[in-house]
Amino acid sequence: MAARPRFTSRATVLVLVLCSLVAILAYPTRQFISQRAEISAQQAKADRSRQQVEQLRREKARWQDPEYVKAQARARLHYAMPGETPYIAVDPAGPAAARPSASATGSAAAAGSAAFDGASGGSARAAKPWYASIWDSVDAADTTDAAAPAPASPRPLPPSPAGDTSPHDH
Questions:
Q1: 112 and 118 Cβ atoms separated by less than 8 Å
Q2: For the chain, which terminus, N or C, has the lower number of CB atoms within 10 Å?
Q3: What is the dihedral of CA 92, 98, 100, 104, to 10 degrees?
């Protein structure tokens, strides 16, 4: 008896056809999978955008309420209604431990302040008015310039006016 070959010509053709099919379908399959991943990433991005739009719509609706606007003006700009005396309580422990609290003698001011604190959680930047922050930055810029290293070629400074010992008045 003659020994049969391990692979017949039919088996070889079948293996070649299967390998060709795998090679032909590999690229489209990979593209399909990557496009599905891209589609789901775009859908997630669209969902996040819808949520952000909804959040902004709710915020816009809050700003349409005159009481909310009053509460924000009181809390952020330290405004008060006529006849009220606004004050700011400062924690002697320091700014890290201090939680900003602004109140006024009227009950509407306390309600407005409470509404603001509940809405935003109170921030450390709201601890002092905006103009104090600006003035602090001017002071910091002035002290930074004075502490800068001297130029390589020193020039004589112009004489200062008599009695002027500080760069600005407080």
A1: no
A2: N
A3: -30
